[in-house]
Amino acid sequence: MTVLEVKNLQKSFGAIRAVQDISFSVKAGEVFTIIGPNGAGKTTTLEMIEGLVSPDDGEIYFGDLDWKKNAISIKRKIGVQPQSSAMFDLLTPEENLKLFASFYEHARPAEEILEIINLTEHRKNQVKKLSGGQRQRLAIGLALISDPEIIFLDEPTTGLDPQARRNIWDIILHLKELGKTTILTTHYMEEAEKLSDRVCIVDQGSVIALDSPSALIEKLTNEREIRVSFLDGETAASEADQFSSVLESVARTEREGASLKVWAVKPEETLLDLFKFTKDKAYQVEQVSIKEMSLEDVFIAFTGKEWRD
Questions:
Q1: Taking a C-beta distance cutoff of 8 angstroms, is the pair 251, 285 a contact?
Q2: In the chain, what is the straight-line distance between the N-terminal and C-terminal CA atoms, in Å?
Q3: What are 239-254's pLDDT values in tens digits?
Q4: Whether the predicted pLDDT of 309 surpasses 60
Q5: Model pTM?
Q6: Are the C-beta atoms of 20 and 206 separated by less than 8 Å?
Q7: Which long-range contacts (CB under 8 A, 24 or more apart) does 299-304 make?
Q8: Is 41 left (phi over 0), alpha (psi -120 to 50) or beta?
Q9: Cβ(83)–Cβ(155) below 8 Å
Q10: Domains and CATH numbers, the chain
């Protein structure tokens, strides 16, 4: 079931076209991730969907509801964690949650939210004493207090260390288990690949690709990159390069010193051929690996640009 549909969104700020033409739909219960470099239009798109910014053109539907006619009903359906969250530093997480709960007719108990965001042990500490990761988990908790059907998380892990980032990932995956729909923005490729049911790649205010992470990677190419380095130096790598380049399964090769990269449609078969070659030549292999394609490779292929943080 589709819970959100966005059609031809556009938004300009003066001469700057932040969002040129963005359309997509989101299904109930999925983690839908919008990825792109800084300045791609992710946050502006989210703010229009959340009702914080009015689009210059386009349509936004939550089922059969739209912002012009059904603003109150939509606000009851959604929870929002913006990039900069407002909370009361001198209150505790528990007090913040209970205060926000008082704004809603039907709020989820603060104790349940504290458990979901793993802050039960810190519920009595003042917010100003929390770490950055703990504050971010509380911000997500505040977005959950109204028990929304759809949750918007705008770059929730930016600036966090790897452990704190993974704590946020655990929360998002738990929300999926609870049946919540999560719409996430990020510019971390690993995060999008790990969490998302579908990924919408945005650049320069437009959608350039949309599918599951695995499907996007499969669409990119069937080739895999094999990396081999030789203890016997450049001579071994050069001969292995000549040998590999004429194999039927090999699309291209690239050599740098004693290291060789081979792009092959059937990497396992190519490796068997390479190992037979090195054994016959008595060359010693120092290291070998097969590199899988990633969402970063997809982005570069679709945009022709290196990834920009």
A1: no
A2: 34
A3: 999 999 999 989 999 9
A4: no
A5: 0.82
A6: yes
A7: 299/35, 299/189, 299/201, 299/203, 301/220, 301/221, 302/201, 302/203, 302/208, 302/209, 303/203, 303/208
A8: left
A9: yes
A10: 2-218 (3.40.50.300), 222-292 (3.30.70.100)
